[in-house]
Amino acid sequence: MTAPSDILTITLNPTVDVSTSARRVRTGHKVRCEVPLRAPGGGGVNVARAIQILGGEARAFAAIGGHMGRILLGLLEQEGVQVHPFEVQGETRESMAVIERKSGRQYRFVMPGPRWDATLVGASLAQIYAVIPKDGYVVLSGSNPPGVPDDFPARLRREIADSRARLIVDTSTKALRLLANTPTDPPYLLRMDRPEAEGLAGRSLETIADLAEFAAILVARGVAQVIVMALGSKGSVLVAKHQSWHAAAAEVPVRSKVGAGDSFVGALTLALARGETPQAALQKGTAAASAAVMTDATQLCLRSEAEALVAQCPLVQLG
């Protein structure tokens, strides 16, 4: 088991996830829903939860505000996740997922979260540095709240440089593009999905080989020591210097894709923190993502299924 001091996850824009269902979702009509379920959410929060589910431990640095922030802390306490709260003005956001039972479609509504200013950004970096795991792993995952600059991952990397902690980043949109195009303070590992990779490449990446080749270009440019490409039902690709691997996703019934990426990052980080090779961590992350899609709504992977599916996620060395 890892110690909670080995892994720190960072969530600047956490959420209280509300999930429910309705027979039918129609515009202009009242949509009468079932009793809602609440769960803690947001990238880094979910990564810490996944690590806890998989038998490890992590601390979650999370921005907390208002009444919903107190609810979020209570939900995390119920799950046994250790939290380092960072107080912000305004209310922690809520997100909602509604399943239309008649069609099986899922509708997701995501709120923006409180606005930050430069003072708050600086204070968050100082507090993160105070709790950074020496020689451990730091996971920055999830969207930025309004007002947080796109170069926050690079600022974080500079802030923690002397701790020798390895930074894992799972971000998107402008923050991802800035990391890829201006690799001055690169993380140890950067994860993205295929559409994001195609946006960076400016071209279609149709095959696993195409994605691995582009990931190798990013590694050679110094964007990160390790690049992970998420391929959905086709698994994930991991590329580091002089090596590249593909782990196939297990063939499982899909109930909800929510939480699959966070389960992947949680399992991968836990394996790395336990001293396993990057390719073994890739395989375990892929198995956890496969397990997550078998669960309903905002649930993450189950440990028993994640462990059982590892053998069904074969590794292939690409180069």
CATH architecture annotation name? 3-Layer(aba) Sandwich
Q: How many domain regions? A: 1
Question: How many runs of DSSP E, i.e. beta strands?
Answer: 14
> How many DSSP helices?
10
CATH level-four homologous superfamily name: Ribokinase
Which strand order do you get reading across the main beta sheet? 5-4-1-8-9-10-11-12-13-14
CATH C-level name: Alpha Beta
| End-to-end separation | 32 Å
Major sheet characteristics: 10 strands, mixed
Shape: globular
Helix content: 25-40%
Q: CATH topology, anyone?
A: UDP-N-acetylmuramoyl-L-alanine:D-glutamate ligase
Helical/strand content category: alpha/beta
Order of helices and strands: EEEHEHEEEHEHEHEHHEEEHHHE
Report low-confidence residues grouped into runs of 5 or more: none
Q: In percent terms, what proportion of residues is strand?
A: 15-25%
Mean pLDDT: 93
Radius of gyration: 19 Å
Spell out the key features of this protein.
10 helices, ten-stranded mixed β-sheet, 319 residues, alpha/beta
What does this structure look like?
The strands form 2 sheets. This protein has a 10-stranded mixed β-sheet, with helices on both faces. The chain has a 4-stranded mixed β-sheet with strand order 3-2-6-7. The model has no long low-confidence stretch (mean pLDDT 93). It has a single domain, classed as Ribokinase (UDP-N-acetylmuramoyl-L-alanine:D-glutamate ligase, 3-Layer(aba) Sandwich). Helices cover 35% and strands 24% of the residues. It is an alpha/beta fold and 319 residues long. It is globular, with a radius of gyration of 19 Å.
